[in-house]
Amino acid sequence: MSTYGYGRSGRSGLARPREGRIIAGVCAGLARRFGTSVMAFRLLFIVLAILPPSSLLVYIVLWVVMPNES
């Protein structure tokens, strides 16, 4: 199953895609890397954001650390 045009064979390194982003592309990049649904990662981050604010910090760190696709 393909998500935003990425199949399992299309996953390589951890990078934020230029297409399919909502905020910074962190969830889309993680979903593509691990071959899972983008919506699953987005829901996970939303649930974690309701809990302690550490998930927001994790998202910001991933935003800074994950490179953009070339």
From TrEMBL:
Phage shock protein PspC N-terminal domain segment(s): 13-69
Gene source species: Phytoactinopolyspora halophila
Domain of life assignment: Bacteria
Gene Ontology CC annotation, any one: plasma membrane
UniProt key word Cell membrane: yes
Keywords, ordered alphabetically: Cell membrane, Membrane, Transmembrane, Transmembrane helix
Subcellular location: Cell membrane
Positions of transmembrane segments: 43-66
Protein name: PspC domain-containing protein
UniProt key word Transmembrane: yes
Signal peptide: none
Broad class of where this protein is predominantly found: membrane
